[in-house]
Design goal:
- This protein starts with a helix and ends in a 7-residue tail after the last helix.
- The chain has one domain: SMI1/KNR4-like (3-Layer(aba) Sandwich).
- The chain is globular and about 40 Å long.
- Strand 5 and strand 6 form a beta hairpin.
- The chain contains 5 helices and 6 strands, in the order H-H-H-E-H-E-E-E-E-E-H.
């Protein structure tokens, strides 16, 4: 079972209000917003659940957004760091938008996950959810 499956199972057991899975048209909209192909783990997560219901955050006031919210709210950061240029698009807000978790797109490098509160970049959504399960304190969550 993947880390994504474990997290979804835990959320459902805790009665976290989750949206139904996203439609293919929604996935295409997210792909356009990111400007890069969606990795399989991102497609799988959003096909399984299109985030949490709008006003139903999980623990620590952590809210995983729907594609509609990702695209319409467009919390975007851009810059350059030691690895080069990047563009971030939020998909999680923590503590009522105190900080976020972002899809990070680097030219020619595909998609990674940036956890703003921990200043940590992870190689995939699956890696993010594995860390979320194993050591949420490392993510400041």
């Amino acid at each position: 079972m993947s880390a994504i499956d474990h997290v979804l199972r835990n959320w459902r057991a805790a009665a976290v209000a989750l949206n139904e899975g996203a439609a293919e048209s929604d996935l295409a909209q997210l792909q356009r917003a990111l400007g890069t192909d969606l990795p399989q783990d991102v497609r799988y997560y959003f096909s399984s659940t299109d985030g949490m219901e709008r006003y139903a955050p999980g623990g620590w006031l952590t809210h995983f957004w729907s594609i509609r919210q990702i695209v319409s709210d467009s919390w975007i950061n851009q810059g350059t760091d030691g690895f080069g240029a990047y563009r971030d698009l939020a998909f999680v807000d923590v503590m009522l938008n105190a900080w976020g978790v972002f899809f990070r797109v680097r030219p020619g490098s595909g998609l990674s996950i940036y956890v703003e509160g921990a200043q940590l970049e992870l190689p995939s959504l699956e890696a993010f959810f594995q860390r979320y399960l194993d050591d949420p304190d490392a993510l400041c969550m």
